[in-house]
Amino acid sequence: MTVIPPTKEEIEVLFKQLKAKQPDNRVCFDCGSKNPTWSSVTYGVYLCMDCSAVHRGMGVHISFVRSTALDSWSWDQLRTMKVGGNANAAA
To answer: DSSP string spanning 4-37?
Structure first.
């Protein structure tokens, strides 16, 4: 069975919904900057560009970072973000 990957539009809609539902997702998990545009798929948190660079420097085996606007995502990665989020990671 072949799984069709999500379209850019589906990805954009999902991230808008997640940020609208969970106010903590509107700020960087690490530094608190507003409107983060990157995510750590490993931890399901939202990051600003500066903090995403730090996470990238750690290596993908520690924190796998993707752009919420520019990169393609799989359904499994999107599910991780849906279940995760900054509030759940901080708990």
So the answer is: PPPPHHHHHHHHHHHHHH-GGGGB-TTT--BS--
Residue 2 carries which side chain, given as an amino acid letter? T
Q: Are the C-beta atoms of 58 and 50 separated by less than 8 Å?
A: no
CA-angle at 51, arms to 59 and 48, nearest 5°: 130
> What is each CA distance from 78 to 33, 46, 65, 70, 91, in whole angstroms?
22, 12, 13, 14, 20
pTM, full prediction: 0.92
* Average pLDDT of adjacent 10-residue blocks, the chain of 91 residues: 91 95 96 97 96 95 95 96 95 87
Phi (first) and psi of residue 7, to 5 degrees: -80, 165
The burial class, CB within 10 Å (0-12 / 13-18 / 19+), for 83 is exposed
CB 11 within 8 A of CB 78: yes
